[in-house]
Specification:
Layout: H1 8-19, H2 27-43, H3 47-56, H4 61-65, H5 73-79, H6 81-94
Length: about 130
């Protein structure tokens, strides 16, 4: 039998509780968030990435997601989840795309991928233009 503390939903609920500042009045609610996070994680495979971005990188969302007004922060986050995902997607689209680095001619075949050398530092047996060795 697995330990509930090893589940993604438990870890997500505890991170959410930590992002809220770990207030005493939310300890019991934090336990109730576990099955709710389980349901959300089934719907949104990248929920962890999105919430991490919203709390730790975005400048606006923490102001709304960290609740001090007595409202359950999970309820609020869940009600704004579509907006959070749209903001995250917009942020993602503004990020620089990784550049493709062309391989040197004759070296870096799919077999060696190390410019003519295998993992052990020997000339690649499959690369037609392998360095002399």
């Amino acid at each position: 039998m697995s330990n509930v503390k090893d589940t993604p939903e438990y870890k997500m609920a505890m991170r959410f509780f930590t992002w809220q500042g770990r207030p005493d009045h939310l300890k019991k609610r934090g336990i109730a968030w576990i099955p709710r996070f389980a349901a959300l994680l089934k719907l949104h495979k990248n929920l962890d990435d999105v919430l991490t971005w919203a709390f730790e990188q975005d400048e606006q969302w923490p102001n709304y997601l960290i609740r001090h007004d007595g409202q359950d922060p999970f309820d609020y986050m869940e009600s704004r989840l579509n907006d959070i995902f749209r903001s995250y997607d917009a942020w993602q689209s503004r990020q620089p795309k990784p550049r493709h680095v062309p391989r040197k001619k004759g070296h870096g075949c799919d077999s060696c991928a190390n410019f003519g050398w295998d993992e052990d530092g020997n000339p690649c047996k499959f690369c037609s233009d392998a360095p002399a060795g």
